[in-house]
Amino acid sequence: MKSSKYIIFILALITSITSLYAQPHERTGYFEEQGEKLIKKAGDKIKSYTSLEIDFTYIQENTSQDIYKTSPGKIYLQGNKYNIAFNDYEYISDGEIVWACLKDVGEIHVSYADDIDQSMNPVQLLEDFQNHYRAKLIRQENILDKVVNLVDAIPNQPRSFFKYRIAIFEEDNMLSYIKAYDRHGGTYKIRFDEVNKNTAIPGEKFVFNEDSYPDMDIIDLR
Length: 222
Hints:
Layout: H1 3-9, H2 30-47, E1 52-62, E2 67-78, E3 81-86, E4 89-93, E5 97-102, E6 107-112, H3 122-132, E7 133-143, E8 146-155, E9 163-169, E10 175-181, E11 187-197, E12 217-220
Parallel strand pairs: 6-12
Antiparallel strand pairs: 1-2, 1-11, 2-3, 3-4, 4-5, 5-6, 7-8, 8-9, 9-10, 10-11
């Protein structure tokens, strides 16, 4: 299903090292070690806030197929609860159940949170990188006049995406973007445009209301 890659990636989603290039790098595994540390710092940073409200831009690109699509999106995150919306997709979780509202096909898929790919939750995505991926610091770049550290995460076992690139601001360890690479030359990027921390998020954001989705088929996968 076309939406499967969105589910794998989007949640995609939500997360320094100092004087890096002034240090000697002779020892084996230095960049791997630093990449792992940076991903952990980004995850710890996100978890330090009681809630996050994130405006993002989703960018899908494949130059060989002449594909370039962008769309705005919104993430509400509070602990293990989240609400993510972009295009015709909305994902709602109260921490135990996930409702994937796929408006393009008129279906709502209901699953236990523990039974699905938790990359829809930015905290779980970064933890997944720590537990099931090999991380490596690639280089530093400037984005919006700020230094970011670029870390590549490669899965230990084959997955739909063979690589993620995570851009982490050096000054505060927050995420600039996460970019996934598929095996057909396609990339799927979430750029974090604005992050509001510790905001008061209404509880109903994490509650599924069937009346808000008339004429959609509910498919219970529990």
